[in-house]
Records
---
Amino acid sequence: MDNYVLKSFLDNCDVAIIGTSGGIGKALVAQLSKQSCVRHIFSCSRTRHDGETDKISYIPINITDETSIISAVKEIKTKTKKIDLIIIATGILHQGDTLQPEKTWKNLDAENLSNIFRINTIGPALIAKHFIDLLPKDRKSVFAALSARVGSIEDNYIGGWYGYRSSKAALNMMVKSLSIELSRKNPEAIAVTLHPGTVNTNLSKPFQSSVPNGKLFAPHVSANYLLKVIDNLQSKSTGQLFAWDGGKIPF
Ligand SMILES: NC(=O)c1ccc[n+]([C@@H]2O[C@H](COP(=O)([O-])OP(=O)(O)OC[C@H]3O[C@@H](n4cnc5c(N)ncnc54)[C@H](OP(=O)(O)O)[C@@H]3O)[C@@H](O)[C@H]2O)c1
């Protein structure tokens, strides 16, 4: 797909991407910076990275530290009153030798489970808590958190990956509840979770050998697909989990 051009957002929209040192987050910033409707991108990340321009500001954030989230929002509010699109692209699946997806319940480890829930579920929930009031009320706006197809309970046929699957299922539920509350307060705003496909990033690297030919996306390809899905979202889409191709994934 060529660079996707957003059509459903008004001109001069501001965007915040969280997790922009990661493969997909970085690609989202690159694709969004080419969009003429986007005025400014707040590139929020724990690890500082290059790439600041007139259109892109770096905002430090650690999603496991609520005070850091509050500081990030404070800094953003000095530059804009509204954010039309918020995308959370943070997450972990493995971390060195200590945290690996569990093949059996015998691998379950309390410390690893709390770590993965802190990053994949609680962090995005706290981002929502502090960022969601930035969504405008007079036009379409979107809050999207990257989840995963393996977080679907109905779609789980092979088991394993207890912590990652459960943390993403819990993230889907967080966003579902949030979407219901949000639709009462801000009916134009849409909150969803998205599956980006299997993407060639550090997160998927150790597990790529089993990916069928043509099914491992480059980050910019996934980012393009995700922007198309986001562009096609309507009020009735809120609260759901969508795949990179726009298909609805059952919870
Ligand atoms: N890649 C895939 O095949 C795939 C498939 C399905 C779903 N997803 C989902 O897509 C999202 C993005 O994944 P990716 O493939 O782009 O992974 P990635 O390249 O490993 O990037 C992960 C990002 O999460 C950030 N992060 C982790 N802990 C953080 C914290 N405490 N505070 C702030 N940032 C933190 C990392 O920041 P640092 O650089 O500071 O560590 C990095 O920016 C994840 O939610 C993942 O579950 C990916």
---
Amino acid sequence: MAATLAPIPPASPASPLARARSAARAASAAVLDLLMPPACAACKEPVATPHGLCAACFAGLPRLPHPLCTRCGEPMPPRGLVEEVCLSCRDAAPPFASARAPFAYDGPARALVLRVKSGREELAALMARMMWAADPLPAEGILVPVPLHRWRLLARGYNQSALLAGALARLSGLRHAPELLVRTRRTRSSRGLSRAQRHANVAGAFAVPPALRPGVAGATILLVDDVLTSGATAAAAASALLAAGAGSVHVRTFARVAREVTQS
Ligand SMILES: [Zn+2]
Ligand SMILES: [Zn+2]
């Protein structure tokens, strides 16, 4: 992929200023934890331990109903004969080898995603533990978060996907390499866009810096994001990694927008 990289530094890790702001927020959150009774990370009801879920939210986590498409991870209708790949993947397989998420983007799972993006960055550790418990990572691979554009990184102060990937690295012992993937341009919000428009919006928006391509060659990449919606962002990021020589790309998100959701 011939993408222009020159003026844009890696979107993650965060700048020193963003790290300082992030540390200040974490410190004030720690002080608040001492002053306030611990609250459920999703609904704010009182709980026994900080940064956990209350029993109702834990029970209400919208787990994805099986069977799942072995490629894109979309729940499929149960059938007598096991269909391994969904119709959409049979029509046009995505560039990533697999996509998995423990939860549908709904209920307490949606609340956690919204809160981790709104200043509650410490929730990433809890969310990563839930991802790890649901779907342990392979023994080999490099964890690469979906990068934010630098302007959004400056505004938020941190990339929640990089926090998830970092926490997964600590749990798994795999390498976390946020520098391997950068945004080459800013993309507009995908809200209100059709599926085709979402793909066009992010096409070519990611690249591997040329100097880092040897580190990607032949590697299994575990691409980490908070939510998979249309799959357009994951597909564009996976395409950039594959164009740089990655052996395969597996997408891991905390939640996904699914066609069918059941509580179990
Ligand atoms: Zn709760
Ligand atoms: Zn599929």
